[in-house]
């Protein structure tokens, strides 16, 4: 046979077997063919699953607090807010932040400027909690985080983050890099899924715990034009049913289910031959195959009964206030331990950190629900030898205004604030006990160039061994701001 024809024949046979699903005796091969770009149904072949350069991390645990925690009452305390409390910006000796060119440069409101009142409250609202320096690094953390403060020498704070959306579509923006007025982009977890191969073929590469709970925030775990096979897979923490419809019926034997799935695989494979460009169909085939494999792997991964009482206590599973966040974070550790690449955790419900009113009451309660479990995660990763191969990201969609929110008669809260806020990272390849960047004395603007949210994306992908600029997809040109720049200053 002509070598060229042999090559075509061999490739065609592999493609056909991949499309057909190989039955459930060949699932692992099907997944590998998929990762090799042989499976059809996508308009482009994904990368070969290898990092672009030696990675410093194997996995990511991305912790997202929905609603926008107050940066000045968590990880960027500002004494000036107490010193000038009740004064307007113009009444202080400081520069009025509303007059800074940064205000319009980094801000993009959906409502017309003449009716937008957000971020312009001029009456300075004092801090609602005390703070002090912690650890050998002497990093300031407020008193609402006593457990996490004990880990401060393991953390790396970035205090000069900024974004452009002043409403909760910023939840999607911090994950995709795009403002809601722009065409959406894949989420950070989807890019990691797209760029890298799997460690464990029996679990998804991108798992989501606790969210998103609304259809309009689905973008935060979506893959967009990368194809639905790269989107996040939400898991329930019920070991008996971690994936909807992912459990065999009680009246069905294992052999019957295997035969059923095998038939479904063949029918879907035949449809894939007829409709090779149908990404939804290809994703469905992979979902069936993965769901079959996950029937054994997923329940074991989230079975906390296998953990010691000491470990469960470390995450706060013995306390009603911390149990939900603790379970999700313990599950995240168990998943990365089993080879999941990217775990996106929502430890709190949608929007609960949104403290337009009663900020002190709200943040006092909410910090107590996540402080101990997050600190427990850091300590657990360290004691298990996972800290040096896992990147932990702790973030929110924006900060909160230095001025008191006065809409609707408000007197004890802060509004959304995209101009400057704080996130932190820990683990593989990241400096420990370090603070990078700053906001001004009132906590208003991220100073210097600051870091748009895609800088965080570029940094996380870099730690995984991926160059964000090499993840271009034909026909989907990304903007310069989409690529971001690696925050080299925080790398160990």
Shape: globular
**CATH class membership:** Alpha Beta
Beta-strand residue percentage: 5-15%
What does the largest sheet look like?
A: 9 strands, mixed
| Fourth-level CATH superfamily | Alkaline Phosphatase, subunit A
Extended strand count: 13
What is the succession of H and E elements?
Answer: HHEHHEEHEHHEEHHHHEHEEEEEEHH
Architecture in CATH? Answer: 3-Layer(aba) Sandwich
**Roughly how many Å is the radius of gyration?**
24 Å
Secondary-structure-derived class: alpha/beta
Low-confidence stretches: 3-43
Q: Count every helix, treating DSSP H or I runs of 4 or more residues as helices.
A: 14
- Total domain modules: 1
Could you estimate the helical fraction of the residues in percent?
25-40%
The fold-level CATH name is: Alkaline Phosphatase, subunit A
Mean pLDDT: 86
Quick description:
This protein is 33% helix and 12% strand.
Topology:
Blueprint lengths: L2 H18 L6 H9 L23 E7 L13 H5 L18 H4 L25 E4 L4 E4 L3 H4 L5 E8 L7 H7 L11 H8 L10 E4 L23 E3 L18 H21 L4 H23 L7 H6 L8 H15 L4 E4 L13 H25 L6 E7 L2 E2 L15 E2 L3 E7 L6 E3 L14 E2 H11 L16 H4 L9
Parallel strand pairs: 1-7, 1-8, 4-12, 4-13, 5-6, 5-7
Antiparallel strand pairs: 2-3, 4-11, 8-11, 9-10
Helix pairs in contact: 1-2, 1-8, 8-9, 11-12
């Amino acid at each position: 046979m002509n070598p060229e024809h042999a090559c075509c024949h061999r490739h065609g046979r592999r493609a056909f077997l991949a499309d057909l699903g190989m039955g459930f005796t060949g699932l692992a091969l099907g997944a590998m063919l998929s990762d090799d770009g042989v499976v059809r149904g996508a308009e482009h072949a994904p990368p070969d699953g290898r990092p672009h350069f030696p990675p410093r991390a194997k996995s990511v645990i991305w912790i997202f607090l929905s609603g926008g925690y107050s940066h000045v009452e968590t990880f960027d305390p500002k004494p000036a807010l107490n010193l000038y409390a009740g004064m307007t910006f113009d009444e202080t000796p400081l520069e009025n932040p509303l007059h800074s060119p940064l205000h319009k440069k980094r801000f993009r409101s959906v409502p017309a400027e003449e009716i937008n009142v957000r971020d312009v409250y001029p009456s300075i609202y004092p801090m609602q909690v005390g703070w002090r320096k912690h650890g050998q690094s002497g990093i300031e953390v407020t008193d609402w985080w006593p457990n996490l403060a004990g880990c401060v020498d393991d953390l790396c704070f970035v205090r000069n983050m900024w974004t452009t959306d002043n409403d909760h579509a910023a939840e999607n923006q911090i994950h995709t890099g795009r403002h809601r007025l722009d065409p959406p982009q894949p989420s950070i977890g989807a890019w990691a899924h797209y760029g890298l191969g799997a460690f464990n073929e029996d679990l998804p590469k991108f798992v989501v715990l606790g969210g998103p709970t609304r259809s309009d925030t689905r973008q935060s775990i979506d893959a967009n034009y990368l194809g639905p096979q790269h989107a996040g897979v939400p898991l329930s923490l019920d070991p008996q049913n971690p994936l909807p419809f992912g459990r065999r019926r009680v009246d069905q034997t294992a052999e019957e289910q295997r035969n059923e799935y095998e038939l479904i695989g063949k029918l879907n494979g035949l449809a894939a031959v007829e409709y090779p460009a149908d990404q939804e169909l290809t994703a469905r085939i992979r979902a069936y195959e993965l769901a079959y494999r996950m029937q054994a792997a997923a329940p074991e991964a989230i079975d906390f009964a296998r953990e010691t009482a000491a470990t469960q206590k470390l995450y706060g599973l013995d306390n009603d206030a911390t149990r939900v966040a603790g379970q999700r974070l313990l599950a995240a550790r168990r998943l990365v331990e089993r080879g999941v690449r990217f775990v996106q955790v929502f430890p709190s419900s949608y929007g609960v950190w949104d403290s337009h009113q009663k900020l002190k009451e709200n943040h006092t309660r909410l910090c107590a629900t996540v402080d101990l479990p997050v600190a427990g995660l850091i300590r657990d990763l360290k004691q298990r030898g996972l800290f040096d191969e896992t990147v932990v990201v702790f973030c929110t969609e924006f900060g909160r205004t230095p001025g008191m929110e006065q809409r609707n008669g408000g007197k004890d809260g802060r509004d959304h604030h995209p101009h400057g806020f704080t996130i932190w990272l820990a683990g593989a390849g990241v400096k420990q006990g370090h603070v990078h960047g700053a906001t001004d004395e009132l906590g208003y603007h991220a100073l210097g160039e600051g870091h748009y949210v895609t800088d965080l994306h570029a940094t996380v992908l870099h730690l995984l061994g991926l160059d964000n600029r090499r993840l271009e997809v034909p026909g989907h040109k990304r903007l310069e701001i989409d690529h971001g720049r690696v925050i080299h200053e925080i790398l160990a």
